[in-house]
Structure formats: structure tokens, C-alpha cells
Amino acid sequence: MAAELIGRCRCPICGSDKGRLTLAKSLLPVITCNGCNVQCFARSDVSDRHFRALLIAEPAQAAAPPAPAPASVPATIAPPHAKPTGSGWGLFGARQ
């Protein structure tokens, strides 16, 4: 099971912003730093609060552009309530 990413954080060892704060199976946070290759594990609620204080605020995502309006349905398509015309073989839609 992959660890759930909480966000990016400042590394408590080297101070770089290359740290990743994830949740371990115990639901306590783990900091993994790609700058100095260190892993820091929280073992209590107090260290949990200290780790989460190191989180870096993510810039707000730009709003997605609105979806385009759906294209109109061509007039050659029969409406769903139309009766089938039958195939002439009698297997796939008998004429009524």
C-alpha cells in the first residue's frame, strides 16, 4: 500500500523544501527528504503536530476553464421512442 501524501514540507535536518509529508500505516506522519535522503518518523501526537507545522502552503490552483457546451444532436438520428422498422429476417425486430 502506498503512503498517502499529505503535502510538501521543509526538511527538519537540512532545511530544504524537498521534503514530502506522508502518512504511515499507523496514521502518523513521516517526512522523507530527497535533498539529504533522510526519513523522520513521528511517534506521538506531539511530534505529529510539529511535523504538520513544517508543511509548505501550496499555491492556489487556477480555476479550470468552463466545459464547452454539448454539440447539438443531428436531425438524422431517430428519437428513442420511435418504433423499429424491422430487418426483414424476422429475427431482430418483427414488424408490428
Outline the low-pLDDT stretches.
none
| 3D shape | elongated
Write the H/E string, N to C.
EEEEH
Main sheet? 4 strands, antiparallel
What gap, in angstroms, lies between the N and C termini? 58 Å
Question: Which secondary-structure class do the elements indicate?
Answer: mainly beta
Radius of gyration: 29 Å
Say how many strands there are. Answer: 4
Overall helicity: under 10%
Work out the strand percent: 15-25%
Number of helices: 1
Give the mean pLDDT: 76
Widest sheet, order of strands: 1-2-3-4
List the helices and strands and how they pair.
Elements: E1 4-9, E2 19-23, E3 29-33, E4 38-41, H1 45-53
Question: Which terms summarize this structure?
Answer:
1 helix; mainly beta; 4 strands; elongated
Description:
The chain has 96 residues and is mainly β. The chain has a domain at 4-53. The chain has one helix spanning 45-53, and strands at 4-9, 19-23, 29-33, 38-41. The longest helix has 9 residues, at 45-53. The termini are far apart.
